[in-house]
Design brief:
With 659 residues, the chain is α/β, with parallel strands linked by helices. The chain is globular and about 80 Å long. The protein contains 23 helices and 21 strands. The chain folds into three domains: 205 residues, no CATH class; 299 residues, Alkaline Phosphatase, subunit A, CATH 3.40.720; 73 residues, Elongation Factor Tu (Ef-tu), domain 3, CATH 2.40.30.
Length: 659
């Protein structure tokens, strides 16, 4: 005990030395965890000593403020715990996906917690909760028991803080000017690897949105277009339609890639024979997406809007920030101008990534999430299977007299991919893999995408029978989050940001083989159809070969979302829609009492349909699409007239309620 007291007093006395040592040790731990290797931190120190020590300096800045408090051991511990939590969280996330931990993951914590049981066992969750309780108890004891510094020299301490901050800012400017530190991270994982976790994480916090151009005025923004384009197709216009206006269906396939392009992995048979045939027979190529291993929402944002996510902050999700605050011009809005009805479909939770709040700001008339679907099959990891999307898309197509634009987002191929045998009689077997764990990961993944491949084939067969013109675009949203999926392990010079796409139609279209960026895919399709409508559609169709193409794209994104909207003459012409949840409206027709049970009859009920009594959600039994049952023991007769039916997602959020 005497040793501990003396040690504690030493920490209190030698604040600067303690802060330096702690900063170094913590950064070593953080970088080691980030590299998933016991010697990773030391290798980073040896290979990039200036960058490593700069990150030590960042941590030191946070520790410098400890000198303002008498309870220095307490605040040293709290600050160390925060940095350790950052390192551990980043390590855990990298073990489950390919992109590192960012401040946007904190914004998405609610969504992340909803998937906890998918990625973690009950034992792991229990240990985390127990660890959290122990930390809280430890903090309380530390506050009460740790020694305090009696004599304070605040003037000296403040001078020290200013000195450390000045050194940090000077070092930052010098290292950036010398090209040792990056300010732009086209690949976030590589950015963290090369620039250090503390620096990059802080960047994701401070560097948000699309930056204002150095020179920003109406001439700069409108100068991206010709006078004719400004009059005919830019903004909220009817545009130019020279060709067909078919039904348009986009299907974004979760974690789809060609598994035969991975080095060192072999399968008993081709997992995606139907997709491979469609790649060959139709317009197809590689599509560069903004995400690796995660980030579905950013891929769909690019393809819906024509905007590039790389102009936002590193790791940023527009769905979580700007798209909750404003509307944005998009392919759905543009097609509505020429008479289309617009539908979004996703066989997962409607609130995930805030889609139920974002899609009204992107121009969708309806949004059908899993809460509005029946007969949903499930994978061994409890993700909805994609076959359910066929009927949902057909229902959307038949729901209107007008032409339809449908954006469907699949989920079956989602990780985490188990590192042990889960499927006991798999159709697809892995016959060669570097490790046992990778064998089972790829075997599980291959069987999921084999079922997706079957879904694609069945869907195309259904569309062939349609008596209306239709064009279908399908592509993978990002590579799966499997440990060895790096560019070094991909055949054919593929980037880890490339998946595959194809364009199929039930009418003649030219077969074009072309690689493309995700933010160009909507404009490219409309161009092939002879449709020119909307600002970014026009821009991508007519100006993608301009020398200042990307600069103008960034400027337009700033103007449309954050600036003065010069491109719209200072107004925002896009009004948020009253998006209907579910293509098929849920209706409550009548309520009957039989014995001590109430039976609610109606239409389009699902297992997520619950009785809503003046805001209280009651325990409800789903008996079928037209009937629900309720125990009436505690229900008063006068309550019946106030009953409605709500769609309640798995975390108890109400998505919609009957009229």
């Amino acid at each position: 005990m005497k040793f501990i007291r003396n040690f504690a007093r030493g920490i209190v006395k030698h604040t600067v030395g303690t802060a330096l040592v702690l900063s170094f040790v913590l950064n070593l731990i953080i970088e080691t965890l980030a590299r998933q290797n016991a010697l990773g931190g030391l290798k980073f120190l040896a290979q990039n000593p200036l960058v490593f020590m700069y990150n030590v300096l960042i941590i030191l800045v946070s520790f410098s403020f400890v000198s303002l408090f008498k309870r220095r051991i307490f605040f040293f511990t709290i600050m160390s715990a925060i940095w350790l939590a950052l390192g551990i969280t980043n390590g855990i996330i990298l073990a489950n996906r390919m992109t590192p931990f960012t401040v946007y993951d904190i914004q998405s914590m609610k969504d992340g917690l909803s998937l906890a049981t998918t990625y973690l066992s009950k034992t792991q969750i229990g240990l985390m909760i127990a660890g959290g309780v122990l930390v809280v108890v430890g903090i309380i004891l530390l506050w009460r028991k740790a020694p305090k510094k009696e004599q304070m020299d605040y003037k000296k301490d403040i001078i020290g803080i200013v000195f450390v901050i000045t050194i940090a800012f000077s070092a930052s400017g010098l290292l950036i000017n010398k090209g040792i530190l990056d300010t732009y991270f086209p690949n976030l994982a590589y950015g963290y690897r090369d620039n250090g976790v503390p620096y990059c994480f802080i960047n994701t916090w401070l560097n948000t949105g699309v930056k204002k151009p150095p020179v920003y005025n109406e001439d700069i923004i409108k100068g991206a277009f010709t006078e004719k384009e400004l009059k005919t197709t830019v903004g909220k216009t009817k545009g130019i339609v020279k060709g067909k206006t078919p039904n348009i269906v986009f299907v974004q396939l979760e974690s789809l890639m060609d598994p035969l392009t991975v080095k060192g992995i072999e399968f008993s048979e081709d997992p995606i024979p139907n997709l491979r045939r469609l790649y060959e027979e139709t317009s197809s190529g590689r599509i560069t997406v903004p995400s690796v291993g995660a980030g579905t929402a950013n891929t769909e944002f690019e393809s819906m809007t024509g905007m590039s996510v790389k102009f936002f902050g590193p790791g940023e999700y527009p769905y979580k920030n700007i798209m909750l605050k404003t509307t944005s011009e998009s392919i759905p809005y543009n097609l509505k101008e020429i008479g289309y009805k617009t539908h979004a479909i996703h066989n997962h939770r409607g609130v995930f990534y805030g889609r139920n709040k974002v899609f009204p700001n992107l121009g969708y008339d309806t949004f059908t999430s899993v809460e509005y679907m029946n007969n949903v099959g499930r994978t061994p990891k409890n993700w909805a299977k994609d076959m359910v999307l066929i009927d949902q898309i057909k229902t959307a197509l038949s729901s209107t007299e007008e032409k339809d634009y449908i954006y469907a987002i699949s989920v079956q191929g989602h990780g985490k991919y188990p590192s042990e045998k889960v499927i006991h009689n798999p159709k697809i077997k892995v016959t060669k893999a570097p490790t046992e764990a990778l064998k089972w990961q790829y075997e599980y993944y291959a069987n999921q995408i084999n079922e997706m491949d079957h879904f694609v084939n069945e869907f195309i067969k259904e569309m062939e029978q349609l008596d209306e013109d239709i064009v279908v675009v399908m592509y993978g949203d990002h590579l799966p989050a499997i440990d060895n999926l790096t560019e070094d392990n991909l055949k054919g010079g593929r980037s880890s940001y490339q998946t595959d796409y194809f364009i199929w139609s039930n009418f003649p279209m030219e077969n074009i083989k072309e690689d493309i960026y995700c933010y160009q895919i909507g404009a490219e399709l409309l161009d092939r159809l002879g449709i020119e409508v909307g600002t970014l559609t026009t821009f991508h169709q007519n100006h993608k070969n301009d020398k200042n193409y990307l600069e103008n794209l960034r400027n337009l994104q700033y103007d449309m979302l954050y600036g003065k909207r010069f491109i719209y003459d200072g107004n925002n012409p896009w009004e948020a829609l009253d998006t209907q949840m579910g293509v098929s409206k849920i209706k409550l027709d009548k309520i009957m009492q039989i014995g001590n049970k109430l039976y609610l009859k109606g239409e389009n009920f699902t297992e997520y349909s619950k009785v809503n009594l003046r805001g209280d959600i009651l325990d409800t039994v789903y008996l079928g699409p037209t009937i629900l049952r309720l125990d009436s023991k505690n229900i008063k007769p006068e309550d019946i007239k106030d009953m409605k039916v709500s769609q309640v997602e798995s975390k108890k959020e109400i998505l919609s309620t009957t009229e």
